[in-house]
Amino acid sequence: MNNLMRRTKLLAALLGLSIPLVLPGAWAVSRAPGGNQPRASNTAQPGAMTLWHGHPAPQWDHATPIGNGRLGAMIFGHTNRERIQLNEETLWSGEPRDTVNIEAMSEIGNVRRLLFAGKPREAIELADQTMMARPRRLLPYQTLGDLWLAFDGHEAATDYRRELDLANAVARVSYRVGGVRFTREIFASHPAQVIVVRLSSDQPNQISVKVGLNRERDATTTAALDSLVMRGQLDGGTGLKFQSTLKALSEGGSIKAEGKSQGDQLVVSKANTVTLLLAASTSYRGNDPQTTCERQIKQAAAQSYAKLREAHVADYQSLFNRVELELGDSSELSQLPTDKRLERVKQGGEDHQLIAQYFQFGRYLLIASSRPGDLPANLQGVWADGFRPPWNSDYHLNINLQMNYWPAEVTNLSELHLPLFDLLESLRQSGRRTARLHYNARGFVAHHITDIWGFTTPGDRARSGLWPMGAAWLCQHLWEHYQFTQDRKFLAERAYPVMKEAAEFFLDYLVEDQKGRLVAGPSVSPENRYQLPNGEVGVLCMGASMDTQIIRGLFRDCVEAARLLGVDEEFRARLKRTSDRLPPMQIGRDGRLMEWSEEYEEPEPGHRHISHLFALHPSDQITPRGAPDLAAAARKTLEHRLKNGGGHTGWSRAWIINFWARLEDGQQAYDNMLALLRKSTLPNLFDVHPPFQIDGNFGAAAGVAEMLLQSHAGEIHLLPALPAAWLDGRVKGLRARGGFEVDMTWKGGKVASATIRSQAGTRCRLRVRLPVAVKSGGKVIQTEQPEPGVVVFATEAGKSYIIEPSQTARQ
User: Fold this and answer.
1) Which one, of 73, 296, 85, 273, lies nearest residue 184 by Cα?
2) What whole-number distance in Å separates Cα of residue 547 and Cα of residue 518?
């Protein structure tokens, strides 16, 4: 113990922390609401991929998240009265609604005329009155309810630890009461479609617990034998029906049902272990929630806990284990709880392993909130508390939903992209009607928000909602999925028909401006404002740069897809002609990329959206070598935004990481990664806007990948934006466009070795900052070197290619 104390004091001194020592626990922690605070464990067993805390979560957005794509739970970890908040992804208020505004078509011409005449205030007043959805508000995604576990006599716990094992997707709470160690293991099983809670101790007959299941509105709970059933219907009995069923299985002891004033509960007495199985379902898309819950509980209960856990871990690791990342040794820091490590970074420290954990936590969250056949991850993934979470926990299409899926392809979780495509497909029917009745256009359209009911009309206010680019931006993800997978069947059957229909809308929607250019509008540069020379401030505009960039990218991708498929030659030609008439990207007098088709002053120069850099990221229209002048203008734009307070929301900072990576500035990307941790990260590593939004977690994970590997410019670029802080490291399993998978080790900031696995047999163009030799089957293969630092070679599907520094480079 004395050695432990000396080591702990030394570590605290090294980290600049003031840590009072408490025996037998090493960390003194604050009191949590609702009882005495347990003392934290001094046993440091975090592992490289374990997030842990020495105290329960004091509030919802500090809790530990688990999920299986469809079900989610937030674990607080209290010892005496535990709350596990629950979600089921389809539990949305509302129903399909006709929100078309028939005035929109007749008034759009008047709104455009006002904008062309330089009268944005009059234009937005008219648009708000005549062009918005009726009704214009979405209804919210909601909590399923809470699972409560009450343990008498567990208030004075010691040796406490709450953790999330990212390697296994298992959460764990452990502590001591008297001489007994109690452990809870909780996971959300995708194979079994249930949440599993395992209660155990290191001595027999010690598990006595009261189990409750409740929801504050629209639901009732009944208990019978060893089960609880919570049933309800949203919206006062007019919305979705839902059910959650819990079954308790014990080894030893007894289980009985018991009534109480707030609802029924189960009482477990003196068991050796208890396993709780929880299923949940709704009537979404005609499903019978009772039948579904009964089937899932029956199937799960037929398996042992060990089998349930084994199947869960195997399923999860089949996705998670595809990618490994090491950014440097932080082994001494691993003795600190995650929140203390984060606090150290907030105070100016650095922690390379914490960044690697943050990256893998992003992948974990996507696995936990987006599985094939399920809904896509919303603004909070699958986790939301209460009955009206922030922004309804909906789908925002003006960056947030797209950012959720930036890591899907590059971090080797390609199939998790499919729920996004399913959602986009589900919007087509409603989007056609909106295109026809709002805009007198063919094709289909979606605006800046949507839900599970097919909402495609302009929602909320004109200043944010009158932005018809949502579906078009989502179409970029279809093309990206093809680029990474080279799946021609997917391109022909799923991607191209949707892309074509989105493009058809803009062929009818674009109008000619005073300069003879084709521009989109009325629209916005998402949520930003401009100022006219006369001082009038505008939001609605014609020809926002982002709109033009999205349309140009969509048209280009459609042309290439149609060429690959050998179809629609006349349509391709029309897209090319129309694209040629779009306004080019323009550089302003101060050297920055222009956000609008005219050069305006900005009332908010540090705005969180940096929409006019869409062409830099996530698109590929601006690259340092392909468009150096535009890249330089993008750099000045970023510098100006940051100088004026930009990046103040988590997701905005995550986007900035990706921008700097695309500009191949590793130091700036790294500095902004640190800024994200320091300013926009909660103790459980959730991203905060504020409040909690999950998009920043996903965007930053993608940003780390972009720093290490890029493939958007027609070549695989190894270490394009490596910061000096990551001199040595290793990554396994990142994906590159063209159907490649890449492993890489670097030392001293240079590639030491790499393996490229070809999955589609495409030609590989590789950019690396030193001379290399390429081997396959143990032999050096023939390569071309079109320019310094670039090698090109043919590949065969299923073969691996070893990249090593050549003898010249070694010398």
Assistant:
1) 273
2) 11
Beta bridge partners of 56: none
- Distance CA(305)–CA(282), nearest Å, equals 26
**Inter-residue contact 484 to 736 (CB < 8 Å):** yes
DSSP secondary-structure letter at 378? B
Angstrom distance (rounded) from CA 710 to CA 75: 37
Between CA 142 and CA 509 the distance in angstroms is 36
pLDDT at residue 332, as a whole number: 81
Q: Mapping DSSP to helix (H, G, I), strand (E, B) and coil, where does residue 488 land? A: helix
Provide the pLDDT for residue 37.
Answer: 61
Q: Decide if 450 contacts 398 (C-beta within 8 A).
A: no
681 strand-pairing partners: 687
pLDDT tens string 666-715: 999 999 999 999 999 999 999 999 999 999 999 999 999 999 999 999 99
Cβ proximity of 421 and 477 under 8 Å = yes
Q: In the structure encoding, which two tokens stand for residue 522, read together?
A: 């009325």
Q: Could you tell me which residues come within 8 angstroms of residue 194 by beta carbon, excluding any fewer than 6 positions away?
A: 71, 188, 277, 278, 279, 296, 297, 300
Considering the chain, what is the average pLDDT of its residues? 93
What pLDDT score was predicted for residue 262? Answer: 55
Q: Do you know the residue count of the chain? A: 811
pLDDT of 499 above 70? yes
Helix (H) or strand (E) holding 628, with range, is helix 628-643
d(CA 641, CA 663): 16
In angstroms, the CA 450 to CA 457 distance is 9
Distance CA 658, CA 703 (A): 5
Amino acid at site 422: D
Encode pLDDT of 718-753 as tens digits. 999 999 999 999 999 999 999 999 999 999 999 999
